Amino acid sequence: MNITQAFSRPLAIVIATGLLAVACTQSAQGGSTAPIRQTAIHRTETSPAQAKGAAAAAVPAPDPAPVVPRGRVYLFRGALGPIFSTGMDRLAEKIVRAGLPADTYEFTICPLIASRAIDKYREDPQPIILIGHSMGGRCALQFSEKLQEEGIPVSLVVTIDPAHLSPSVPTNVERFINIFLSKNVLGGGDIKPVAGFPGHYASYDLEEHDEVSHITIDKMDAVHQQLIAKILEISTTPAKIDEEIAQLRYAVPPKEPIELWDSGMVIAARPGDTLQALASEYHLPLWSLTEMNPGPDNSPLVPGQRVIIPRHLAPAPAAPPEQPMVSRR
Question: Considering Cα of 140, then 145, then 146, then 150, what sign does the dihedral take?
Fold first, then answer.
């Protein structure tokens, strides 16, 4: 398109003259003239009030403020903890580096620490996270029972190969995870929730993992990283959801990665669904479905059949930032 066709004749003359001057200057300096990109220009008359309003509306919305993790983490060693439960100390150090206060204690002073936690919660309520190895796992459950007596919720309890004589999970615990070795005499606690437990429950038996023992189970970095991720999101992740919560109980197959789901959700099978197809659809290992839903993995499911799908709880969606007010006159 000829440039004089895009503008009125007087304006075209002015622009052409300016371009010629620039070209002459660059030629005098020994440079080359860059090609001119022709762009259609639409001219509209805008009143000062409209221009002011458009400028205000063009102000970008501020980014939402980052969510600061909240909570207090209490970790408990087992017997001869400074020797055999050093994984609790390592995990506490990682949590502190991630931005949350975390302290490690001997299980023998469990009642004292629980009393202090109650006082702190009354002064400044924050999510409470309890983690314990061996006898420290037993302590974490006793700690939870003491908080239940005071009407205080526990956001997350994690027991790592707890002692056999550990209590059940009380109803004030919102999320519970047990990682254990079912045949181990030093731990081996297969912890179950009390009747009517309303929270999220997941149990992981690692007995078939020969590389794991009672004195290494608390030191697995892959498990630490998953726990830290859950802890950092605990204050923004609602535990109460408007759907059925299914409890998970797994014997993790050998050589399979240990993934810590929070609980299960229940779906209804559709015509043509199989466990293999659902595993692919939800990006899950097939064993995680076959253990919770007994039956052939490649046979069609009955339409409407209940199927338990393991899931991770997710933080609630952030509220959209407030838009700046634009005054109209």
Answer: positive
